[in-house]
Amino acid sequence: MRVTLFVPCYADTLAPSAAIATVTILERLGHEVVYPGEQTCCGQVHGNSGYFREALRLAERFVDVFGDADLVVAPSASCVGTVRHLYARLARRAGKVELAERFEALGARVFELSEALTGPLEAGDAGSFFPHRVTYHPTCHSLRALRVGGAPQRLLEAVEGLELVPLRRAEECCGFGGTFAVKNADTSAAMLADKVAAIEETGAEACVAVDGSCLLQIGGGLARSGSGVQALHLAEVLAGARGE
Amino acid sequence: MTAIRPFPEAAREGLANPQLRANLARATGTIRGKRRAVVEETPDWEELREAGRAIKARTLAALDEHLVVLERAVESAGGKVWWARDAAEANEAVSQIAREHGATEIVKVKSLTTDELGLNEYLAGHGIEAVETDLAELILQLDGDWSSHILVPALHRNRHEIGELFRRTIDREVGDEPAALAEVARTYLRKKFLAARMGVSGANFLVAETGTAVVVESEGNGRMCTTLPPVLVTVAGIEKVIPRWNDLEVFLQLLPRSSTGERMNPYTSLWSGTRAGEGPREFHLVLVDNGRTRVLADEVGRGALACIRCSACLNVCPVYERTGGHAYGSIYPGPIGAILTPQLVGIENAPTLPYASSLCGACYEACPVKIDIPDILVHLRGRAVEAGVEPASERLAMRGLARTFASRRAYESAQRLGRGALRLVPWARVGPLRAWARARDLPSQQPRTFRGWWRAR
Fold first, then answer.
1. Percent helix, strand and coil across chain B, each rounded to 5?
2. Are B341 and B332 in contact (CB under 8 A)?
3. What is the pLDDT of residues B31-89, one digit of tens each?
4. I need a labelling partner for B400 at 20 to 30 A (CA). Which of A145, B125, B188, B294 fits?
5. What stretch of H or E contains B201?
6. CB B200 within 8 A of CB B119
7. Contact A171 B362 (CB under 8 A)
8. Can you state the angle between helices B392-405 and B408-424, rounded to 10 degrees?
9. Sign of the CA dihedral B362, B365, B368, B369?
10. Do B408 and A13 count as a contact with CB atoms less than 8 A apart?
């Protein structure tokens, strides 16, 4: 299948390994990966911070870049949530009904990685091998906006050599929340401290999630606490293979 | 209207108080568990939520008509209806009724609306003492403190603090045991119930077709206040109306499960006007606007008026659990406060509240009437930006970022510049990333961007 890759701006710029791993898995499964170089940012930061005009322009740009794609995959639940839910809302509130319908049509073809692998791509065994103990943090947008349910855990459980251990209060937010981490830095840090403590309790070598932005927060907290636990994107785990 | 304290600043007090955070974590954790159990055992929970949402949405869409029906029904049942545009009019109505009956001490049922109006302070200014009869409200009143939780107002106080307070104010001999403390309060309040010539309550619901006011409570103090004194005044926001008696069936299942985690609350009092030979001889209903019609005019923001004040959103909120209720600067704390307060007092007076959330969505999931709180938060952020209350530096940065993202060339050169700057500038010490770097490491520099890798492969 031909898969059009959408890489969030922060992942492209600061943490490319999740996107590189996404390419690895998709190609290993026999899909053709296309990466439109015109893509920049979905506009989530603007949309969630109240800068609706700016967000709507970036939304229109997103449709220009991805409008013809049959299947768009992104290693980020919150960016997919933005495209699938926020875009149409922004358009409707600006009185642009036709645009909202275009957004909705595209939104139905944009998938977060674990959704795509367990849904339209019908991925079988990707030959993933990751002989480590990991815990899984369900990010808020994957859990409550996209409702991916247990898809990421199912993918992890199928990885050879991997031991998945439960995380206490897993469904509680890590405290990232985009500009929240800066505007309410102290509250965000208090939430992060509890998340880091819960992760460290598990004795896992890595905490896995499907949102690179939350992983910047969790990884930053784990690095600061000096525990040596890694923050990894699901794609990075799935891309692991024997002999690497 | 005075501006409330900025949330990030007010939050620091709660964050820095380990005792408060332990109390909050324990209390909200217990109530979350109880709620989960009684929600999971209800097979039609999602249908009930949807019914609750639909009834509220339909009612708010024709609120004026339902209020007129309510007024007629209350009056034909022997009650009197007062319309109050704002807090001043509502407070004056209650005060006038009290003065007409020579009531200098009144007993009150726990009511958020009268707290919002500042009724007790207003009455005190007119020589009328309002005695709170809900145990937690009494504790706060005796200590000059204020509520930090919709359902458990004294959540931030422990029993030793309460014992100390009671010894100072009611009974010098009492210890710190909960049962003894409750008994002291009970004896103290019993005298007040029997002596009061007027009771004041709020209302959880007002049924339009029957003119019925409904109060849901746990301690029985509400039943005392609404049945013993000869005069009863109910003060309620106009959004509390529901059209039909049968609608109660939905809300009386949703509310106790969502608030106390019970299948049914101990006391549900319902009254329609007055009746010869029982209960109060006079009934007054004060219907309060105080900013609500302005909220109603906002098609997105009006969702907040559907709230039935259960406090489930507070109990699941990771922000509330860490900051406590006082950080929200109003009688309505937590996620619901973050969307209600800025609308009631004006966004310019509470511009930080819509940002007091990571948009995690736990509140929306718990809300028994499906208020999309994250969506309303984002909507109100838009109104804050529109009103120009966000800092100019942020506005410039956001516009600049939007321009950068508008073209591939600008984006790629910003990436080059940014990555260079990440190497050269000590970001942990300057700029907006300083706040980030206080508690977290910055991501380590990767050898290249994704698009650089893609091109090179």
1. 55, 10, 30
2. yes
3. 999 999 999 999 999 999 999 999 999 999 999 999 999 999 999 999 999 999 999 99
4. A145
5. strand B198-201
6. yes
7. yes
8. 120
9. positive
10. no
pLDDT band at A244 (very low <50, low <70, confident <90, very high): low
Name which of A145, A154, A130, A158 is nearest A211 in CA terms: A145
Task: Determine contact, residues B17/B361, Cβ cutoff 8 Å.
Answer: no
What residues of chain A lie within 8 A of the CB of B384, using their CB? 50
Q: For residues A61 and B256, give the distance between their C-alpha atoms in angstroms, rounded to a whole number.
A: 47
Q: Is the pLDDT reported for residue B336 higher than 60?
A: yes
pLDDT digits (tens, 9 = 90+) for B130-164: 999 999 999 999 999 888 888 888 888 888 999 99
Q: How far apart are CA A111 and CA A19, in angstroms?
A: 14
Please indicate, yes or no, whether the overall pTM of this predicted structure exceeds 0.90: yes
Length in residues, chain B: 457
Q: Which of A45, A49, A140 sits opposite B360 (nearest CB)?
A: A140
Q: Output the CA–CA distances (angstroms, integers) from residue B93 to B122, B123, B200, B203, in the order listed.
A: 11, 11, 12, 17
DSSP readout, A115-130? HHHHTTT-------B-
Identify all chain A residues contacting B323, using CB atoms and an 8 Å cutoff: 187
Q: B446 and A35 in contact by Cβ < 8 A?
A: no
Burial track B291-305 (b if 16+ CB lie within 10 A, e otherwise): bbeebbebebbbbbb
Half-sphere exposure of B416 (CA within 13 A, CB side): 6
CB B387 within 8 A of CB B342: no
Tokens 């059209």 correspond to what residue?
A: B243
Distance CA B272, CA B426 (A): 69
Q: Which H/E stretch holds residue A49? A: helix A44-49
Q: Beta strand A72-74 with B241-242: parallel, antiparallel or unpaired?
A: unpaired
Taking Cα atoms as reference points, which of B339, B422, B287 lies closest to residue A14?
Answer: B422
Q: Count CB-CB contacts under 10 A for residue B144.
A: 6
ipTM value of the model?
A: 0.96
Angle at A220 between CA B15 and CA B421, to 5 degrees: 115
